[in-house]
Backbone:
């Protein structure tokens, strides 16, 4: 259907013409268990007003057929009313009621009404996922965030199922034949993309939370937690409820606005495309957060962060919603910041900001250096562009800038602004200007310049210290140099930074400890720091201590030399995280060689106490080896890293998180090396002795994938493992392993399934792409020509979700730079540039993926060239 991509000007014209009052949506899911039933009946009745009698507008509905359209009592002819995914409504009255009856289609892509059959027990599970605009795949509606309304859902489904929606269940009717109908309470005024339905034989746990409101009344919030029945034995709803209650208590006090959506259910669902989605009253999460194997504390912390991120959305996004996707940051940046803040202040986890520095900000730094970077407040012209902007800038850079904003205006003023913003705009829609007014009123500052420099300008500033000392080692001058070029014009656009400079020196034990700090405002290209003049030069001068601002930081030469030998001796985990992040940025920028970085990790990783940080360091080190190291040095450096991992696996405390991290990395490295095949197989067979290590299902599949990728497993062995673990996760692990064999026929079959067929579900497609991509570029390069030849067909024949996975996941980006070749001449880069030049009219979202993958490859090739 060619008219699915709603443009911003179309949405603006529609919202200028109409206002929506209420929806009554009936969904008949009674035949969902029949695999031959491609769709289900969907009946949507919408009450709305029009500002101009006789005008025309349209509804959105991506469907499998429309049965009838009745507008204000008159049935519209389908041949003129139904136009692809739009339903035209001519001759409107000032007050209107329209009913659309038709068939909606079940999904295997995670968009709309996703249907999943559990391989463990053959039961059928349904859930919906809409953001940014897939509610129209389930019921006819006005699909844009500023046309809010109240929604009432009525769902027919097998009587023995659990069925839930945004509102509380108000009635259940037995329809006979094993089918019942659930009626749900009307919602508050919300946007279409956060409505939700869950249906299936889910396991459900229940609890409640209550608080006394300022007027003395008691607010009772029923809590629910769902997962597939076959996962119930691994489910820990009490831990989930504990985090949920901690978050509700924290945000109630912080925001001074009661939770507005009645109940609070959390559903953990299969084949989910996201980490979670903030549907009010029924939040959906990836079931990867139901840990069926041993999980580290970092994994539990990440789950808590996601729970609290989604909870923050109940205010930032659900209660007050952006008018259009340009201001997506108004919800995602705030939720990302608030999630980290709440984990730090309301739970027992102590490394929230460390995790933020290591993972979230690292994501932002990568995204913000791509040619496709954009301001936090983006220019979103249509829905395809909106889909692409759920990225590291909107989430993590936005959250990082909010952290800087808090340092700039003060936490109290920031929260006062949020409270006023909620009171003024509850159940409405906003833009950047609305938030800036609230911030200016609360802080007493004109926020316009700050917003222009931070929110409306793209790119990563770089801060570098220049340190002068006298012969006695006393500081005579420190200047911070800011390099902040606009990514498009190249013009310098320095940002204002409120940051701390940490001074670190060795103590009597040799640890590098903070012996002093100064807090300063950095503004302009050069900022002097007179507060440091006259002080003894520290061993390490750390810009952005405590990670208050958003910038890449560099080190002066003396500090860098100290760090390369002593980084693991910094006891403060956040200071270590800032240093690790800065050094990794240096590797990506070619300022530090991959070899030096890996050797730094060999020194520092054994002393790293945080399992989450350790995991990031080892991920980065593997990437440095495989992508940034010249081919002729790669095997040697890989063995250096592998030896560290195996040594530390045996040395780690039995049953510890660190032991599990080392084991997972042994398997990950084993995909590219046969040096430790005996160890990996021994772990599977129980003949290798690693006391305390739980070689459970998830780790077993990682080990099998490594053995398969190096040709040291047999297909029959994978079949036997799948028979032992015939679960959804087992099927994913098997699919990855089966596509990993270094056999041209295996790779060709996987390529055919991923590129030329369209039968895999979202999760199995990803697993197939992952397994295919494990292999030398010599094995995979034969598919490069077909990759570029197939791009347009792939994009046009699939949903944007599935097409994006194929285009990004199969880009031939794992390449070596031949000696005497300059990076820009590499054949894959030339092929990608040729494709872009030959396809100027290709969808912008498709071109964006190619441009980004091309840039990542160019960066890797440049690093290889610099490492020679």
Residues:
């Amino acid at each position: 259907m060619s008219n699915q991509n709603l443009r911003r000007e179309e949405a603006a014209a529609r919202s200028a013409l109409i206002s929506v009052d209420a929806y009554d949506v009936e969904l008949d899911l009674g035949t969902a268990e029949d695999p031959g039933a491609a769709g289900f009946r969907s009946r949507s009745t919408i009450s709305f007003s029009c500002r101009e009698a006789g005008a025309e507008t349209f509804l959105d509905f991506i469907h499998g057929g429309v049965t009838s359209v009745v507008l204000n009592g008159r049935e519209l002819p389908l041949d003129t009313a139904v136009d692809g995914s739009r339903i035209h409504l001519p001759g409107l009255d000032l007050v209107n009621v329209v009913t659309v009856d038709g068939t909606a289609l079940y999904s295997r892509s995670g968009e709309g009404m996703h249907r999943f059959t559990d391989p463990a027990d053959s039961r059928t599970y349904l859930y919906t996922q809409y953001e940014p605009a897939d509610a129209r795949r389930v019921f006819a509606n006005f699909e844009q965030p500023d046309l809010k309304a109240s929604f009432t859902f009525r769902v027919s489904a097998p009587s023995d199922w659990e069925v839930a929606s945004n509102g509380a269940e108000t009635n259940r009717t037995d329809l006979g034949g094993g089918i019942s109908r659930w009626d749900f309470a009307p919602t508050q005024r919300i946007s279409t993309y956060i409505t939700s339905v869950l249906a299936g034989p889910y396991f459900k746990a229940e609890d409640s939370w209550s608080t006394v409101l300022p007027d003395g009344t008691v607010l009772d919030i029923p809590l629910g937690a769902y997962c597939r029945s076959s996962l119930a034995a691994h489910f820990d709803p009490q831990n989930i409820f504990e985090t949920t209650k901690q978050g509700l208590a924290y945000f109630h006090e912080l925001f001074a606005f009661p939770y507005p959506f009645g109940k609070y259910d959390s559903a953990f669902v299969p084949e989910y495309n996201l980490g979670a989605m903030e549907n009010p009253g029924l939040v959906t999460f990836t079931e990867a957060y139901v840990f069926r194997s041993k999980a580290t504390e970092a994994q539990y912390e990440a789950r808590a962060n996601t729970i609290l991120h989604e909870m923050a959305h109940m205010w930032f996004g659900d209660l007050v919603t952006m008018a259009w996707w340009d201001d997506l940051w108004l919800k995602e940046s705030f939720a990302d910041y608030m999630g980290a803040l709440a984990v730090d202040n309301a739970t027992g986890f102590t490394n929230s900001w460390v995790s933020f520095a290591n993972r979230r900000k690292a994501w932002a730094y990568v995204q913000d250096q791509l040619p496709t970077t954009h301001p936090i407040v983006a220019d979103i012209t249509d829905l395809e562009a909106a889909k692409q902007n759920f990225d590291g800038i909107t989430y993590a850079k936005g959250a990082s800038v909010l952290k800087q904003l808090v340092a700039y205006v003060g936490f109290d003023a920031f929260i006062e602004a949020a409270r006023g913003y909620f009171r003024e705009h509850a159940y409405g829609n906003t833009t950047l200007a609305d938030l800036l007014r609230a911030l200016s009123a609360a802080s007493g500052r004109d926020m316009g310049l700050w917003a222009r420099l931070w929110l409306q300008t793209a790119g990563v500033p770089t801060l570098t210290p220049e340190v002068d000392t006298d012969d006695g080692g006393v500081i005579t001058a420190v200047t911070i140099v800011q390099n902040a070029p606009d990514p498009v014009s190249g013009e310098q656009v320095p940002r204002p930074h409120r940051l701390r400079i940490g001074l670190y020196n060795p103590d009597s034990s040799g640890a590098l400890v903070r012996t002093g700090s100064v807090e300063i405002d950095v503004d302009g290209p050069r900022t002097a720091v007179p507060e440091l003049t006259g002080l003894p030069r520290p061993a390490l001068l750390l810009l952005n201590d405590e990670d208050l601002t958003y910038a890449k930081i560099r080190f002066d030469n003396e500090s860098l030399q100290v760090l390369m030998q002593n980084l693991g001796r910094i006891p403060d985990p956040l200071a270590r995280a800032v240093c690790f992040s800065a050094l990794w940025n240096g590797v990506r920028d070619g300022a530090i060689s991959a070899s030096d970085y890996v050797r730094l990790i060999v020194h520092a990783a054994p002393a790293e106490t945080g399992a989450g940080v350790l995991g990031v360091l080892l991920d980065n080190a593997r990437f440095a080896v495989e992508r940034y190291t010249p081919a002729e040095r790669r095997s040697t450096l890989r063995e250096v890293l592998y030896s560290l991992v195996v040594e530390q696996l045996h040395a780690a405390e039995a049953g510890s998180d660190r032991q599990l991290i080392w084991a997972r990395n042994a398997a990950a490295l084993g995909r590219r090396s046969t040096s430790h095949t005996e160890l990996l197989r021994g772990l599977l067979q129980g003949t290798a002795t690693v006391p305390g290590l739980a070689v459970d299902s998830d780790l077993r599949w990682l080990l099998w994938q490594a053995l398969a990728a190096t040709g040291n497993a047999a297909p029959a062995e994978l079949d036997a493992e799948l028979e032992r673990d015939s679960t959804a996760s087992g099927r994913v692990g098997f699919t990855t392993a089966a596509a990993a064999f270094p056999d041209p026929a295996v790779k060709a079959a996987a390529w055919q399934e991923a590129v030329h067929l369209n039968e895999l579900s979202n999760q199995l497609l990803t697993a197939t792409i992952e397994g295919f991509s494990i292999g030398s570029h010599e094995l995979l390069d034969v598919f490069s020509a077909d990759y570029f030849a197939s791009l347009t067909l792939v994009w046009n024949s699939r949903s944007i979700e599935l097409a994006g996975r194929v285009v990004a996941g199969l880009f031939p980006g794992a390449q070596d730079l031949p000696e005497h070749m300059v990076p820009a001449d590499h054949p894959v880069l030339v092929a990608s540039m040729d494709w872009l030049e030959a396809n100027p009219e290709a969808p912008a979202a498709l071109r964006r993926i190619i441009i980004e993958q091309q840039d990542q490859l160019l960066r890797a090739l440049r690093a290889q060239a610099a490492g020679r």
Remarks:
- The chain is about 40% helix and 20% strand.
- Residues 697 and 725 are 7 Å apart (CA to CA).
